[in-house]
Write a structure and sequence with these properties.
The complex is a heterodimer. By secondary structure, chain A is of the alpha/beta class. Helix content of chain A is about 30%, strand content about 15%. Chain B folds into two domains: about 5-260, Aconitase, domain 3, CATH 3.30.499.10; about 285-465, Aconitase, domain 3, CATH 3.30.499. By secondary structure, chain B is an alpha/beta fold. Chain B has helices at about 5-10, 40-45, 75-95, 110-115, 145-155, 180-190, 205-210, 215-220, 235-245, 250-260, 315-325, 350-360, 380-390, 390-400, 450-455, 465, and strands spanning about 15-20, 20-25, 30, 55-60, 95, 125, 140-145, 155-160, 165-170, 200-205, 230, 275-280, 285-290, 295-300, 340-345, 375, 400-405, 425, 440-445. In chain B, strand 9 (about 165-170), helix 6 (about 180-190) and strand 10 form a beta-alpha-beta unit. Classes of the chains: A alpha/beta, B alpha/beta. The complex binds iron/sulfur cluster. Iron/sulfur cluster binds next to loops of chain B.
């Protein structure tokens, strides 16, 4: 996993509440058995005017000019500004894969759905929670300022605006550690093999039917 | 010891180790389907890792399988590759799989309980958000992402933080024609799709205790639509009777010890919840969603809302966008909305009891002329066989419904079953998101009874009028 330390990124606004993972990456693309290559189909139904299917040449498809991700001023964005309950719905990890493949490394929203939030950390994306008021003010600033960038620092847990306003955010210590160092969860867990084995043995004795 | 919630008991009994509030919890059962597993198996292969405990894993293809004639396999080459990849991975890793064609094949959340592979007191995970279904058995069950699927495969554990606990109490007696699905939708209508975020929900109260296991599964299935990763119901006699005798249930010599333990799986008197939500069963009416999120729901005697009456601009925009997508005018009575298709199926409502209830409404009637397709998709091969034994297939076919092979089908339209743009569907599934049942398709979530009623009326109708 790619580590996340600091990011000075262009921000793109997505002004909708309850954006679900079906919208982030529509189901027809879940048939892929790979992890990479979902970026061109991120937000497919909103981003293109036609209906997308796997195997299409996305560079030839008609773009929806009203969708922010398509607008010239937001090209190269790596920070996604969103509304509440972002990433609800299906547990598909293809959603963070698509966002990462598109180029996003951080998301800012007032709230997230649990599974999506968790999946972001497994893929080197930092989902930041800021209050609805702050997010609202960021939406206004992004929309009125071309080239609006934010500096996100995971170590100090801050988001800093171009006019040096700094917002602190919370992040779980373990997740922060993994993200800062790009650590693979499985490797970390396997450091505790003996404890897992001991737990398992006890369980097998107490509830043998679980091991039938 | 102080009074504990069911969630406390389930979570705490699985903690292998804990550090700074982050726990490693042991996973008893891992269910696998074809969509969210290929990248996990690939990850294991690349790292040269094996499965920690092979017999904890059960696999089944469900999302991509055709529901019509299967003798020629899967027509779509990409869907086929995904199912073949699952078959190959299960062979390579030695995992038990109920393949297409096996009578036990079905939607993963129907198959697990049906096999007794979901048991009280277990932790159950699957790379699928509706894994919350299995909480109906007094289990801790939730969906995980593909990285976590790989993690559980390799370590039998999951890195977890304990959630907060919410109790949703539904007291009283449900009215005739009102179902677990209506309870679920009414709860989501009340607390919203993010109302349960950060919580594990325990459903309790006399109305819940009166529900069958099928009903409890329907309810826990929808916990994720309220934002809660896990939903659960305490173990009682209904649970134990359901489990008894199933293939993966405890063996006779293990049975008494299992039941003795399971009987402790309830919240203690006086246990403290971080939030409590109460509903009165008598006040719940048959529900219909009108918009593009399960919280956009009203009772059958209601009307589509008017955005002009909403003061919050984000919400108002949401209502306007939903009405536009759904092709609906504000203030339209919901029972005046005509439908094009009907889908009875999905992990929410495709079990035998659901099919019986829908058949009871359809019996002796006929699908209305304006309905282009009404399909019934049993949740598993075993449900299908049972229904056929009871003659339900005949009732449906005589009423003009199509009777299909088991799978996810038009719940998410990854196979060939889907809505065309603009088509309106009465569906017993769990998500009415934009494009869920096909691009441009319009989904209204209802109970099986309400779906069957809509099929014969051609529009939404209060099923209680047909039943009386
Ligand atoms: S029936 Fe629908 S919700 Fe259930 S597992 Fe299949 S696709 Fe998911």
């Amino acid at each position: 996993m790619q580590a996340f330390t600091q990011l000075n990124g262009l921000v793109v606004p997505l002004d909708r509440a309850n954006v679900d993972t079906d919208a982030i990456i529509p189901k027809q693309f879940l048939k892929s058995i790979k992890r990479a290559g979902f970026g061109p189909n991120a937000f497919d139904e909103w981003r293109y005017l036609d209906h997308g299917e796997p195997g299409m040449d996305n560079s030839k498809r008609p773009l929806n000019p009203d969708f922010p991700l398509n607008q010239a001023r937001y090209q190269g964005a790596s920070v996604l500004l969103a509304r509440e309950n972002f990433g609800c719905g299906s547990s598909r990890e293809h959603a963070p894969w698509a966002l990462l493949d598109f180029g996003f490394r951080a998301i800012i929203a007032p709230s997230y759905a649990d599974i999506f939030f968790n999946n972001c950390f497994k893929n080197g994306i930092l989902p930041i929670t800021l209050s609805a008021e702050i997010v609202d003010s960021l939406f206004k600033a992004v929309e009125s300022t071309e080239g609006y960038k934010l500096v996100i620092d995971l170590e100090t847990q801050t988001v800093v605006t171009p006019d040096s306003q700094s917002y602190a955010f919370e992040v779980d210590a373990f997740r922060k550690h993994c993200l800062l160092n790009g650590l693979d969860d499985i490797g970390l867990t396997l450091q505790h093999v003996d404890e897992i084995k001991a737990f398992e043995a006890k369980r097998k004795q107490a509830q043998p039917w679980l091991f039938n | 010891m102080s009074a504990r919630t069911l969630y406390d008991k389930l979570f705490d009994s699985h903690v292998v180790r804990e550090e700074n509030g982050t726990a490693l919890i042991y996973i008893d059962r891992h269910l696998v389907h074809e969509v969210t597993s290929p990248q996990a198996f690939e990850g294991l292969k690349l790292a040269g890792r094996r499965l920690w405990r092979i017999n904890s894993v059960l696999a089944v293809p469900d999302h991509n399988v055709p529901t019509t004639d299967r003798s020629h396999g899967i027509a779509d080459p990409i869907s086929r590759l995904q199912v073949e990849t699952l078959d190959q991975n299960c062979t390579d890793f030695g995992v038990t799989e109920f393949k297409m064609g096996d009578v036990r094949q079905g939607i993963v959340h129907v198959m697990g309980p049906e096999q007794g592979a979901t048991l009280p007191g277990m932790t159950v995970v699957c790379g699928d958000s509706h894994t919350s279904t299995h909480g109906a058995f007094g289990a801790l069950a939730h969906g995980i992402g593909t990285s976590e699927v790989e993690h559980v495969m390799a370590t039998q554990c999951l890195v977890q933080k304990k959630s907060k606990a919410m109790q949703v109490r539904v007291e009283g007696k449900l009215g005739h024609g009102v179902t677990a699905k209506d309870i679920a939708l009414a709860i989501i209508g009340k607390i919203g799709t993010a109302g349960g975020t950060g919580y594990a929900i325990e459903f309790a109260g006399s109305a819940i205790r009166s529900l069958s296991m099928e009903g409890r599964m329907t309810l826990c299935n929808m916990a994720i639509e309220a934002g809660a990763r896990a939903g659960m119901v305490a173990v009682d006699e209904t649970t134990i009777n359901y489990v008894k005798g199933r293939p993966y249930a405890p063996r006779p010599e293990q049975w008494d010890a299992a039941v003795a333990y399971w009987s402790t799986l309830h919240s203690d008197e006086g246990a403290r919840f971080d939030a409590v939500v109460e509903l009165k069963a008598e006040e719940i009416e048959p529900q219909v969603t009108w918009g593009t999120s399960p919280e956009m729901v009203i009772a059958i005697n209601g009307s589509v809302p008017d955005p002009a009456k909403e003061s919050d601009p984000t919400k108002r925009g949401g209502i306007e966008r939903a009405l536009q997508y759904m092709g609906l005018e504000a203030n339209t009575p919901i029972d005046q909305i005509n439908i094009d298709k009907v889908f009875i199926g999905s992990c929410t409502n495709s079990r035998i009891e659901d099919l019986r209830a829908a058949a009871a409404v359809a019996k002796g009637k006929h699908v209305a002329a304006n309905v282009k397709l009404a399909m019934v998709v049993p949740g598993s091969g075993l449900v299908k066989a049972q229904a056929e034994q009871e003659g339900l297939d005949k009732i449906f076919k005589e009423a003009g419904f199509e009777w299909r092979e088991p799978g996810c089908s038009m719940c998410l339209a990854m196979n060939a079953d889907r809505l065309e743009p603009g088509e309106r569907c009465a569906s017993t599934s769990n998500r009415n998101f934009e494009g869920r049942q096909g691009p441009g398709g319009r989904t209204h979530l209802v109970s099986p009874e309400m779906a069957a009623a809509a099929a014969v009326a051609g529009h939404f109708v209060d099923v209680r009028l047909l039943l009386n």
